[in-house]
Amino acid sequence: MALRLVADFELRKDVLPWLRAQRTAAAGTGPRGGGAGVLENNYESLRVLNVERNGSIIYTYKDGKGNVFFGLYDCQTRQNEHLYTFEKDLQVVSCSVNREKTLLAASLVQSTKEGRKNVLQPGSKCLTLLVEIHPVNDVKVLKAVDSCVWVQFLYPRVDSHPLPENHLLLISEEKYIEQFHIQIIQEDGNRMVIKNSAHLPRKRVAEDFVWAQWDMSEQRLYYIDLKKSRSILKCIQFCASENFNLMFEAPLDISLSDSGFKLVNFGCGYHQDQEKLSKYLTLCVFTNHTGSLCVCYSPKLDSWEQITYSVFYIHKGYSRTFTAALGRAPSRVTRGITFLNLDYYVAVYLPGHFFHLLNTQHPDLICHSLFLTGNNEVIDILPHSPLQSLSESLVLDWCSGKLYRASLNQSYLLQFLWSARLDCEKMAVLHCVLARGQDPQFLEAKIIQWISENISACYSFDPIQEFIIASSYWSIYPETSNMDKLLPYSSVLTWNTEIPGIALVTEEITLPLMKVHSFKNYWEKLNANLEYVKYSKPHLHYHNSVVRTEWHRLISEEKTGQRRPMVYVRNILDNAAKVFSNLEARNLVSEPRSTPLFQEEDNQQRLLVGLMVAELKDHLLRHLQGVEKKKIEQMVLDYNSKLLHLICQILETSWRKHNLHPWVLHFDRQANAAEFSVFHIMTRILEATNNLFLPLPPGFHTLHTILGVHCLPLHNLLHYIDSGVLRLTETAVTRLMKDLDNTEKNEKLKFSIIVRLPPLIGQKISRLWDHPMTSNIISRNHVKRLLQDYKKQPRSSMIDKSSFSVEFLPLNYFIETLTDIESSNQALYAFEGHDNVDAKFVEEAALKHTTMLLGL
Q1: Residue 661: pLDDT over 90
Q2: What is the total count of domains within the chain?
Q3: Is residue 293 domain-resident?
Q4: What are the DSSP E strand ranges found in 228-353?
Q5: Mean pLDDT of the chain
């Protein structure tokens, strides 16, 4: 299954053996203070009450006499502890213990069994008590009312101190929330008691609300009140001190007027009836460390054929309403939708019908979310009982008393990547694996293997492009939370293909009004997200358009012999050198590279790498305020290194798979099927990088050209060269000239290659082939250089034909002109270095070429 639930705690496994051991130990001595000695053999009443911020799990048990037993399980020490026992037949609504385990707050109602007398105060339905339990000393009544009350201690992130002040929330069914301030003092050595218990200060936190949710990890209270039939979501942030702040107000386009009163994550009291849960709406708020804020809402179920839910991506400024066709029409829905927070994702599922994995970090493209229907049998693996999403990745099944850690099943997702039929599913899984992967190198290797086997299986996107962009993005994403705004995370800009079985409507929403203007941590990131939605359009994503223009300008200048200032070019090449050095440092622990890359100077690719470093660094420095320059420079180096590394890894995987060897670089051999496959992969890599204008590792074009000469007929080879698919490098053509003999077929190939070379490279290569054709080319270039600034001078003398061995007057006249030009000291100095090329060489080359053309 895509969702993996690993049990962190089980009542039957972690608590029940301890309870039985306590009962056995106490059997001979009898009960002490109403403790564990009165336990019976029937443990059906054992259930979880609450999970505190520090991982402590409070549970309850009722013995045969109706006495209520409270216990605590510490998930860190894996130890159980008896907290308190009420020797009355009561039902527990809610319970919480303070961090020091000196105070227990409990809310109880009288038993509904016939024949039981009312043990509470006259006229009261619910009794809320505060108990001193270190040691057991006193009980204080906080509330005795005719409505249910829930309790929750606050857990500030501060170091322990001797006399802590405790803060307790009371949530009343009468739609108000109060905060009690409780001072603890130490008496008689180790005895902790409440100071001034007759009068505990209290503050009203919220009132007139219809729904509330507690975030135990971040100590936040979300609640909704109704103003003129509008649902207003509010959030209270509790601080380490007694202070609390109203952080924001956000209107939601949902109707809660007839939904009744509902609490989320305030323990697991009897008041939450499974049958009722299936009839009422589901609403929950999820956040993560990047500053995202999602409100997930599912209204009452109105149809057995389809089900609807909405997600308000408040940090993005819009909402989406999904309508899912139920996978199995005959199967009736017995309970509502479950929403689970998985950090960058929200899982939405209905066991037996569908499982959706919504990308909350990048929800813009629907293809980044995964939608599985009930036809997939593994969906039934999920528990059918209601699950509660607690902090971070904790999930509680309160029916079975199991606490899970939820995560995405990477093994299943990788398997599903191979079997997925739809492009949207492949895209979603690809991003999901890269975003949540625990072992990036292993996962990248698996994805590359899939790409090499399914290179042409995707029609809506290029898997190589998507893999390179997404993996490079996630490799440096943790460095700063603003990366999703500044770097592309997908190669796909739009996605208009429908998802089978899913209909969705996207609407803009009103952004929340922040009530506090001094932000830290999460709130600073959320506020930055909201500011981006307000003001930053179009998007600030980096793209290589500027690099493309500047790179083409540099290459053009290089071909024409023009030169930029040496300092400018040197800085660009230094940037490239840093990237290559960084790449080698990152690859020290990996296997030696078998592909012949990085073994030559490819000036064009070095310029491209260096330009991309310079442009990306300027882009991040411009928009990443408050981040050190050195950190940004390292991030840029890492990003560019990752790009090149992924390209190398794709090629390396194909190279190893087909067992190619270094002798592939020689031309005196026939191509085989393995070389055809690698050439095809390299062509697809080139196509992917060209469209995104990304650099390639030096040596790539040389290897690609050599494989092209091996694999392609001459007319196809020349077409690839002329269309720019193959780029002739000096290294590749040099090998061509040296390895191939002068058969008629090879002469035709060599000449076709030489005439397509840039002039500067052509001059060097022509000297390697002793052939009339190359002599002719060298002569033409020499004459062109000599005559480009030549001005004809009047002549008074006749040509001395005796000095020439051939009676060919036009040639004689031309050679005399060249000889006169060469006699100039300035001309000789200008062409210094062109050894063995002079008027005599030109004359001999012309005669040889003429003889060859005439067939003499």
Answers
A1: no
A2: 1
A3: no
A4: 230-238, 244-252, 262-264, 282-287, 293-298, 306-313, 318-325, 338-342, 345-350
A5: 82
